[in-house]
Amino acid sequence: MRFFRKFIKVVYEFVEAFVISASVFVVVYLFLMQPHQVKGASMYPTFKDKEYLLTDKITYQRGLPKYGDVIVFKAPVNENFDFIKRVIALPGQTVMIKNGNVYIDGQVLDEYYLSSDVVTNPGQFLLEGESYTVQPGEVIAFGDNRGHSSDSRDWGPVPEQNIVGRVFFRYWPSDVVGVISNQTRASN
Fold first, then answer.
1. Which of 96, 108, 109, 152 has the most crowded CB, counting CB atoms within 10 A?
2. Spatial contact of 140 and 134, defined as CB atoms under 8 Å apart
3. How far apart are the first and last CA of the chain?
């Protein structure tokens, strides 16, 4: 009988620890941060296919995205999938693609995160030389690998309610583990 009581006590403690751990995981996953896997090459060279990232889900509950933030959001065509892109333009800004460059409010955008030879081509939504003013409650987001990215150039602005969060940490593969920061230049 004594063995049975010890066994029940051990099982009870195991179940209790599991329930507490699962509860903490659910709270963190639903409200604080969420893991995401990079699928494809649209953010290359910043992120590579199959890398794992953590997304901060609370930053945008207290404020809006900033230029240069890498965000995760529900895909515009199928919201069962998430996209990872970089914020290019914010509400009230006018964006235009002309001669391979991105213009914000009439000025060439300093895309410090891209190599100088990257050319940005227009898409089905943002046509060559035509401007679009970003409306309240939306952002414009592009992939860093402009030649291989389906982004706001093709399907338009990202509604803020579709934004899952801001990418803040890369945890796999182990040789690139680290914090992802938006180190915008002082002029931005």
1. 152
2. yes
3. 72
Residue 16 falls within a domain, yes or no?
no
Q: Which residues contact 84 (CB under 8 A, 6 or more apart)?
A: 36, 38, 42, 43, 47, 53, 70, 71, 72, 143, 167
How many structural domains compose the chain?
1
What domain range includes position 44?
A: 35-179
Closest CA to 89 of 35, 141, 34: 141
Residue 59 located in a structural domain? yes
Among 42, 57, 149, 152, the one annotated catalytic: 42
Token pair for 180: 């992802």
42 lies in some domain? yes
| 29 occurs within a structural domain | no
The mean per-residue pLDDT over the stretch 104-115 comes to: 93
pLDDT in tens, 154-177: 999 999 999 999 999 998 888 888
85 in catalytic set: yes
Helix (H, G, I), strand (E, B) or coil at 70: strand
Please enumerate in sequence order all residues whose Cβ is within 8 A of that of 100, keeping only pairs 6 or more positions apart, or say none.
119, 120, 121
Which domain CATH number covers 115? Answer: 2.10.109.10
Catalytic residue among 9, 21, 66, 85: 85
